[in-house]
Write a structure and sequence with these properties.
Layout (H helix, E strand, L loop, with lengths): L6 E7 L6 H14 L4 E7 L6 H7 L3 E4 L5 H11 L4 E4 L12 H8 L4 E5 H4 L8 H19 L11 E4 H5 L10 H11 L4 E5 L15 H14 L2 H23 L4 E3 L2 E3 L1 H30 L7 H9 L2 H28 L7 H31 L5
Parallel strand pairs: 1-2, 1-4, 2-3, 5-7
Antiparallel strand pairs: 4-6, 5-6, 8-9
Helix pairs in contact: 6-9, 10-11, 11-14, 13-14
Length: about 375
């Protein structure tokens, strides 16, 4: 790090010849007007329209990033920057680089990540497609707040500032558009100090369509949020399935039940057992996913998870699994005995299946628990 550089203004670039010089000029004027010792970095991702030359001539330091992707360009630019602070923004002139003072003020006040909020600052006419403005961004931002317990109103704003050392400590990995989500998600998980400032979004200055692809990039962001939140992806759905399945099973086990004109019997009992089994599988997936994510550094250590995994050792898991499988076998033996009483002939399914269904459910859930216990033991094996 160059000790004389306080701020690096970083612009990812892929064929932005129409706007790159304008953005750099605004950034230079901002640094000059506010007497900030800084630099402008253009992280070029393989432009073929001469953007690199235009950027260099306008006074930027051009970094060539051979690996394709928005995240690759940004991460390469972050690593190459000299500034203590970095403000990143698109090079399409949709953000005014003369308006960065709120970001530097927030960083000077101790923030480690400063997010722009376009919904507070203002979105100029034709600056954002209606689908993004009223559906995509609000829904994804709401999910980000729900999953990761934060107050960020604009989860995907492309103009943001941060401390270089704080963001590098997150060990960001993604190379595509979901890089923006990963930065915010990990900042929340690792407890970085995050704040928001109003930001105005302007119509970009390009004559060509943007690089952003509405549905595919929106799905990539949603997929990333889900994968980083096993609690919402696996645990909560699993608990709901188990509660519904086990409650229904207990209700139907004594005999048929009538709900209005409907009579619920062994067919419903079978589906209830199926829901219970699926629910346990989802809960197990939640546990294994979180343990794996912590073990490889994708998520920070979780004291509650450490307590759970210590209590649920391999040996305890095996014992629990064998008990469940034993109960399942006992129920099946009861069904076999009932069959033998009837000379192995035709049976009344409304009675026999009330022994068979719980038996197979318990055996299946016990076997799931057994496999999960061994896999958890593998994940917890100490390694260099």
């Amino acid at each position: 790090m160059n000790p004389g550089i306080r701020l690096s203004i970083l612009m990812p670039c892929l064929d932005e010849a129409e706007t790159i010089a304008t953005c750099i000029t605004k950034a230079r004027n901002f640094l000059s007007a506010n007497e900030i010792e800084g630099e402008i970095i253009v992280a070029d991702n393989g432009s073929t329209d001469g953007s690199q030359t235009l950027a260099s001539n306008a006074g930027a330091r051009v970094i060539h990033i051979p690996e394709k992707g928005y995240g690759s360009a940004l991460l390469g630019g972050i690593k190459a920057s000299y500034g203590k602070y970095i403000i990143m923004g698109d090079a399409d002139d949709s953000y005014n680089f003369l308006e960065l003072k709120p970001f530097t003020d927030a960083l000077d006040s101790g923030a480690e990540l400063v997010m722009g909020n376009r919904f507070i600052g203002g979105i100029k006419p034709n600056a954002m497609p209606s689908l993004h403005r009223y559906l995509g961004n609000p829904i994804l931002s709401w999910l980000g707040r729900l999953f990761f317990k934060n107050d960020i109103g604009d989860f995907h704003c492309g103009l943001r500032g941060f401390r270089k050392d704080a963001i590098l400590s997150l060990d960001l990995q993604t190379t595509g558009m979901e890089f923006a989500s990963e930065m915010v998600v990990k900042a929340c998980l690792y407890g970085l100090k995050i704040t928001e400032v109003p930001t105005i979004l302007y119509p970009d200055g390009r004559s060509r369509p943007p690089h952003l692809r509405t549905w595919s990039d929106g799905w990539r962001h949603l997929r990333f949020l889900l994968l980083y939140s096993p609690r919402w992806l696996f645990y909560y759905p699993g608990i709901i399935l188990m509660v519904v399945g086990l409650t229904l099973s207990a209700w139907l086990l004594p005999g048929p039940r009538k709900v209005g004109n409907l009579e619920l019997d062994i067919n419903t009992l079978m589906y209830a057992a199926f829901l219970s089994t699926l629910g346990l599988q989802a809960v197990i997936f939640s546990l294994l996913t979180k343990v794996f994510a912590i073990s490889v550094g994708l998520r920070p250590p979780d004291p509650a998870m450490q307590t759970i995994t210590k209590l649920g050792s391999l040996e305890k898991g095996i014992v629990t699994a064998l008990l469940m499988m034993g109960l399942g076998l006992t129920s099946s033996v009861g069904a076999l005995a009932y069959w033998s009483v009837n000379s192995f002939g035709p049976l009344d399914p409304t009675f026999s299946m009330r022994l068979v269904i719980p038996g197979t459910m318990l055996f299946a859930m016990g076997f799931q628990t057994l496999l999960a216990s061994f896999f958890l033991g593998i994940l917890q094996t100490k390694r260099k």
